[in-house]
Predict the structure.
Amino acid sequence: MPLLDHLRELRNRIVKIAIAVLAGAVVGWVFYDRIWLFMEVPFCHAMPHGVCDPGVNGRYLAFFGVLDPFYFKVKIAIFAGAILTSPFWLFQVWAFVAPGLYAREKKWAYIFTGAAVPLFGLGCFFAYFAMGRGLEFLMGMAAPGTGTVYTADSYLGYWLAMILGFALCFEVPLFLVMLNQVRIVTHERFRKWRRIIIFLIFVFAGIASPSPDPLTMLMLGGVVIVLVEAAEVIIWLNDKRYLRLHPPMYESLSDDEISSLDLPEAVDTDNTAR
């Protein structure tokens, strides 16, 4: 396909995605109250007795500008629309990329996409239940005698950062397997990096769930490490399969043994001269 046709197709795909997200945003706008109540649950759990109180400073989320509630509602609607229409726009992305892939590449793309979606959802699940403990700890760091007002915008940023942070952390095992498929990460290299990987996972778990009890950190880090160990098994099996299909040429030779070379055929000088 010529370059201009590719650009036209890309434009059409983007237009379709934008229309779908806007349609989903309309649904998000209609159900804004229910969506926001669901998102506000971790904040309320961090309050004393697990209840938000609009009559007490620091126990509710505030807006400071006249237009802030409207902009905030638009953000929630677009966010909800992107989630609701994700199957459609992911299909549009796939439909644009797929014609340029070989059959083997398509097969691996299906496998990785099928594994990425549940891992992403599992990360979101853990993030949602870890938010309350993290907020409770962070809010308790305010100096004595001071009042704190929490804005809805800052809470939304924290909420999205936690969701994306946990979800991407759960994608690490899949990322390692993908690197193994292109022979960047082998099982031998993985064994050398294992301690560093485990250390970094627990560092991230401690930052992502900043609560004083180690239970949340161990829960998040432990689940990710189990997934990483499962990825190691897949990497080990894939390396064995790769070595079986591509055996080393000189593995059986000793260090002082000369390898056999396929010499080129001799050139018939007489025929060449003629």
In short: The chain has ten helices and two strands.
